[in-house]
Design brief:
167 residues, 2 domains, five-stranded mixed β-sheet, 1 helix
């Protein structure tokens, strides 16, 4: 009987591990949200809705309100380097998916409306962008809520220059 119990425990351990790895590999997390589904990230048919776990955090305008600017720099080897310039906002990767702390969080990067990445710093390399592509970066709270100021999303957009053919 103890051998059966030991085999059961081993099977449970391996089965749980395989299930966890399979779920994580497909973008599924314990919060019940499928991170692999583009519809949950502003992609697919979701339009402009971005990874919306909760309502937006709306802040008053003024000198302390968060702002963002972005710049594309042609990479000498290939692609583009996107520079994100937040004001009154701090990237806090250690607090991603945790409770909100005023003035901190992360950004979401979109290309032509499709979410490309979650961003925790001021630079990201984009390997290939066609001329005319629209790059957008939005600021988000730790728990992924959109940051807004007086109801307007804190985001910036830029368009890849037309002389960027073949990049």
């Amino acid at each position: 009987m103890s051998r059966s119990l030991a085999l059961f425990a081993i099977g449970l351990l391996f089965g749980g591990g395989i299930g966890f790895v399979t779920a994580a590999g497909n973008g599924i997390t314990f919060d019940g949200h499928d991170h692999g589904d583009p519809a949950h990230h502003g992609g697919g048919h979701a339009g402009a809705m971005a990874h919306d776990h909760a309502t937006a955090v709306d802040l008053p305008s003024g000198p302390d309100a968060p702002r963002i600017a972005i710049r594309l720099h042609k990479d000498p080897m290939s692609g583009w380097n996107l520079q994100v310039l937040p004001q009154n906002f701090r990237f806090a990767p250690q607090n991603a998916s945790a409770e909100n702390v005023p003035g901190e969080g992360h950004a979401h990067v979109y290309v032509n409306g499709e979410k490309l990445a979650r961003l925790y710093a001021e630079w990201i390399h984009l390997p290939s962008l066609p001329a005319g592509a629209v790059v957008k970066v939005s600021l988000n709270t730790n728990n992924h809520s959109a940051l807004t100021v007086e109801g307007q999303p804190v985001e910036a957009t830029t368009t890849v220059p037309s002389d960027a053919e073949g990049t």
